[in-house]
Amino acid sequence: MQKCGWTHCSCGGYIYDNQPKIRVGKKWYHEECAKDRELIQDIITKFIEQVNYAQIPVLRKIVNDIIYNEIKPAEYVMFALNYAIAHPEMKLTYPQGLYRICNSHDILTAWTHQVAKNAVGSHRIEINEVDQPTTVINKTAGKRMVSDLFE
Ligand SMILES: [Zn+2]
Fold first, then answer.
1. What range does the domain containing 71 cover?
2. Overall number of domains in the chain
3. How far is the CA of 39 from the centre of ligand 1 (A)?
């Protein structure tokens, strides 16, 4: 048993022998924690490059707050950031704007559609038929995901 290197470890802080782990630099992380850590790093890098904002500590604090206090998946924050960058009318110009972006109805809807699409993706390949039934599945799966994310 060893300590997880991630400050925001949500897996109990310690890595047990039966848990998948990854080594980054000198530290060991739960697989999940290493993934979050990398994704947060990517979100920050992307924000700095695309939104042209350079105060990393402020940015890091807000991204962590959204993921670990508002409990939104890091994948979702990345998705929301990409969406806002692709939609300049959303006017994401400073880190605090991430709170608004992550609660945007439009982005949440787009996210649930994407998640549902990924979830039925394997089905679609197997069935390989008309889009009609898949669309129905998308809608119901989407609704379930909305409540999962924000309850
Ligand atoms: Zn961990």
1. 37-120
2. 1
3. 14
How far does the centroid of ligand 1 lie from the alpha carbon of residue 36, in Å?
A: 9
Query: Which tokens sit at 77?
Result: 């924050």
Distance 14 CA to ligand 1 centre (A): 7
What is the distance in A from the centroid of ligand 1 to the CA of 77? 19
- Please check whether residue 71 lies inside any domain of the structure: yes
Separation of 44 CA from ligand 1 center, angstroms? Answer: 20
Average pLDDT, rounded, for the chain:
84
What is the distance between the alpha carbons of residues 151 and 143, in angstroms, rounded to a whole number?
12
Cα–Cα nearest to 18, from 1, 37, 43, 40: 1
pLDDT for 50-80, tens place per residue?
A: 998 878 999 999 999 999 999 999 999 999 9
Is pLDDT at 133 greater than 60 in this prediction? no
